[in-house]
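Regression test case RT-17, inverse folding.

Input:
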C-alpha cells in the first residue's frame, strides 16, 4: 500500500458522524465534476473550514485529523481538559454541551428513520445531568514507556496503539480522576510495573467504616511482597479498596481491606445495591437515578401489575419497580449478577422481586418465567440489542414496553420489528446523556399496543 500523503489540506465540514467526527468531501483532481470522497475529520465541527491531515484511507472514505481551524463554528468551545485531542476518552469537549445532546438526538432519529423505518410519535426532552466528574466506572490502560522513563496510566489515545500520557481526568469522579498521576507514580515504583496492563475503577457510596471506591489491578505475574505492601499503603492513603486480578474474572480477590463492602444508593426508592468490583453498574450515578424515574414514568406500572425486567443486572430497575408493583421478575445472563440481585432484594426486604439466570440470546422456551403472565415489560439490553428475545416473547400480554438502549442502531432495528411486524406503536423516544463529551448515545423508547 502506498504511503499516505500527510500534507495538510483545506476542507469544509458539512456534517457529523455518529461518533463525533466532522464530515467533509475532498475533491478528486482527476474527477473535478464529482462530489469528492468523504473524509471523517477528528476535531472538526459542522460549518467549519479546517486544515486537516490524513491519517488513514479506505475505499469509500478517508480519515483525518484537524490541525488548524480556519473558520470556527459558533458552537465550538475551549475544551476543559488539557489532554483533549490526544486522549481518546472524550470526543466532544470542543462542542458546547447543549449542542452535544442535540447531536445525539439527531443520531437517534436518523437511526430510527434509516434502520427501523419508524419514527416516534413524540420526542422526549433530553435527560441530562452534570457533564464533569461523573464517570464512576471504567478501565485505565497501563504501559511502561522506557523512552520516557515513566509509566503511563490513562485511557487509550485516539490512536489506540498508545496510552495517553495524562495527569488527571475531568470526566471521572474526582476521587479517582484527581489521582491518575499518583496512580502512575505508584505503579512506576513497583517491581511488577511491566506486568500490570490495566487498572479498573468503580465507585459507590463512601461510608465511614470502609471505602466505597475500588481499584482492581490486573497483573500478568505474581506480585512481590513489597509491591503488595505498596498497594495496601496506597489504598489506605487514598481510601481505596484494592483488588487483584491475576487471571480471569473468577480470580479477582481483595488485597485490602480483607472484606470490602461496595454499594450504591437509590435514595428515591430507599434502596442500597451491593456490587463487586468488576460488576456492571451504570456509569453516571446522578443520571442513573433520573433515568430510573424516567423509565418508570413511561412504563406507568400499577400496584397490581406483574412486570418483566430483562437484562436486569444487579436489579437497577427491578428493585425500584418492586416498590411499585405486586411482583417483578428480573432475568439476567450473568449468574454472579443474578446472585447479587437476589441478595440485594433480600437486603432491602423485598420479597416480591424474583430473579432468574438465562442467556437471553438463546432458546428460552424451557424457562419457567416464560410461561408466566406479565402486564408490562422493561428491558435494558447490551449493544447487540434484544431482537432474539423479542421474537420469543408472547408480546400480546404486555400493555406497555419500555426499552432502555445503549446503542441507537440496535434500538432502531428492534423498534422496526415491534412496529412494522408486531403492530406496536412507538409512542415516545428520546436521548439520555449518560456519557457527556463522548459519542456514546443512551436512549429510551416507549411502545404501546
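Golden output:
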Amino acid at each position: 500500500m502506498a504511503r499516505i500523503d500527510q500534507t495538510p489540506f483545506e476542507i469544509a465540514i458539512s456534517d457529523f458522524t455518529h461518533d463525533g467526527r466532522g464530515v467533509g468531501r475532498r475533491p478528486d483532481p482527476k474527477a473535478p465534476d464529482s462530489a469528492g470522497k468523504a473524509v471523517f475529520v477528528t476535531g472538526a465541527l459542522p460549518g467549519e473550514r479546517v486544515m486537516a491531515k490524513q491519517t488513514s484511507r479506505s475505499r469509500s472514505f478517508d480519515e483525518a485529523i484537524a490541525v488548524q481551524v480556519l473558520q470556527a463554528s459558533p458552537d465550538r468551545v475551549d475544551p476543559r481538559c488539557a489532554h483533549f485531542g490526544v486522549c481518546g476518552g472524550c470526543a466532544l469537549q470542543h462542542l458546547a454541551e447543549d449542542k452535544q445532546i442535540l447531536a445525539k438526538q439527531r443520531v437517534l432519529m436518523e437511526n430510527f428513520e434509516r434502520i427501523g423505518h419508524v419514527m416516534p410519535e413524540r420526542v422526549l426532552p433530553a435527560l441530562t445531568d452534570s457533564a464533569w466528574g461523573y464517570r464512576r466506572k471504567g478501565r485505565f490502560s497501563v504501559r511502561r514507556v522506557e523512552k520516557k522513563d515513566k509509566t503511563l496510566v490513562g485511557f487509550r489515545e485516539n490512536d489506540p496503539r498508545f496510552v495517553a500520557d495524562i495527569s488527571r481526568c475531568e470526566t471521572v469522579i474526582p476521587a479517582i480522576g484527581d489521582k491518575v498521576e499518583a496512580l502512575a507514580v505508584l505503579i512506576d515504583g513497583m517491581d511488577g510495573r511491566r506486568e500490570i496492563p490495566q487498572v479498573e475503577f468503580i465507585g459507590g457510596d463512601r461510608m465511614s467504616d470502609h471505602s466505597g471506591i475500588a481499584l482492581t489491578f490486573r497483573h500478568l505475574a505474581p506480585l512481590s511482597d513489597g509491591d503488595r505492601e505498596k498497594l495496601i499503603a496506597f489504598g489506605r492513603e487514598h481510601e481505596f479498596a484494592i483488588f487483584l486480578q491475576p487471571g480471569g474474572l473468577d480470580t479477582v480477590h481483595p488485597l485490602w481491606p480483607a472484606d470490602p463492602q461496595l454499594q450504591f444508593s437509590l435514595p428515591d426508592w430507599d434502596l442500597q445495591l451491593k456490587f463487586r468490583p468488576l460488576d456492571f453498574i451504570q456509569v453516571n450515578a446522578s443520571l442513573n437515578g433520573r433515568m430510573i424515574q424516567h423509565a418508570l414514568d413511561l412504563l406507568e406500572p400499577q400496584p397490581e401489575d406483574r412486570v418483566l425486567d430483562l437484562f436486569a443486572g444487579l436489579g437497577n430497575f427491578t428493585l425500584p419497580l418492586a416498590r411499585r408493583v405486586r411482583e417483578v421478575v428480573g432475568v439476567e445472563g450473568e449468574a454472579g449478577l443474578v446472585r447479587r440481585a437476589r441478595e440485594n432484594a433480600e437486603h432491602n426486604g423485598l420479597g416480591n422481586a424474583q430473579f432468574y439466570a438465562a442467556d437471553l440470546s438463546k432458546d428460552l422456551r424451557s424457562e419457567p418465567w416464560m410461561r408466566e403472565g406479565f402486564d408490562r415489560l422493561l428491558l435494558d439490553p447490551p449493544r447487540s440489542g434484544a431482537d432474539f428475545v423479542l421474537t420469543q416473547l408472547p408480546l400480546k400480554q404486555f400493555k406497555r414496553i419500555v426499552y432502555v438502549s445503549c446503542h441507537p442502531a440496535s434500538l432502531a432495528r428492534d423498534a422496526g420489528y415491534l412496529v412494522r411486524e408486531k403492530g406496536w406503536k412507538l409512542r415516545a423516544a428520546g436521548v439520555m446523556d449518560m456519557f457527556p463529551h463522548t459519542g456514546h448515545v443512551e436512549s429510551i423508547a416507549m411502545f404501546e399496543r
